[in-house]
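Q: We require from you a single protein entry containing the residue sequence and its fold in token form, and nothing else.
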Amino acid sequence: MTIRERLRRSNLIMLVVPVAIAGLLLAVGLGGAAWLLDTAYLPRFGLNLHMMGEELEQLLKDMRLFVALYAAVVVLAVLAAVGFTNFYLTRALFAHIQQPLDALVQGVRRVRDGDLDSPIGYTGSDEFRPACDAVDEMAARLKESLADGQREQQKKQELLAGMSHDLKSPLATIRAYTEALLEGVAADEAKRQRYLQTIYARETDLEALVNRLFELAKLDASEYPVHLRPLPLRETVLAILGGCEAENVTLDCAAVTDCTVTADRELLGRVLHNIVDNSRKYGADTLQFGTEARGETITLWAQDNGPGVPAEQLPNLFDPFYRGDAARTRPASGSGLGLAVVRQSLHRMGGEIYAENAPGGGLRLVMQLPLAKE
């Protein structure tokens, strides 16, 4: 049953039922009055309804035409009231319902057809506003979800391309030098040793790349065991960096303050090692660490004096195999996985990281870790 039909039925019931009840009450009242007249009032005068039958019969005959006319007028009035009410209420109500209902239907059809850029934009303040807003929100979320899916797909393609590139380069070198040794190109022992050292170096790079990929895959899949516990930050940073093989990089931890964070000791060590290794690979010779307290988190920053990164490329530094400005992305120097591992490690510890260029030059990595609760 449509809304229009339901409305007409409700209007009819709304008018007919009160009239029927009024008629029933009138009939009951007349019957009750006749009973009281016959049993309570007329006997006081020595009369009854049977004795007054002829007079009452004549009176009823005189009133019969009046009652018929009265009943006809009542019926016509009820029919007119029902018709007017149906016409007025139905027209007025549907004039208010039809426009937002049509807008809602058209909005749903646009979403069904893939048009997610044309919101309904209903501005009324009635019951249709939440429904139209919900459809607009659904379209916006669906559009965002599709965009995220496209970005993820693009990242996967870039990841595969980066893996192919970075695996192909050392494998090609190993193959070339191995063929040279097999063909006897290296005539003397010194040349053979140099070829073997090159093969060993490329194999080492290949092994490191595979290990990084395996490590990143475990972090992405949440399979890496994480043991969060309170750690004294300054003491932990000094202990980790004291074991870093930071060749030609001067480490300065004077700005790291005493505080206790909730972190995983092994993951935090992996983060710091990768940051130091990243700065060393891209030409920095000084790396400074410091902290700042911000509410319930502690900000640990690391700033080097390398060449820096163009501002538009800063958000992409933590993507696997990202290739941006040549100043900091030299395939021969790194795999492009170090900062991706850093980001995933911090996420597993409930932290965040972003990059910015330092005012005096160089790259500044800003990490946020939760403070330990007392």
Remarks:
- The longest strand covers residues 286-294.
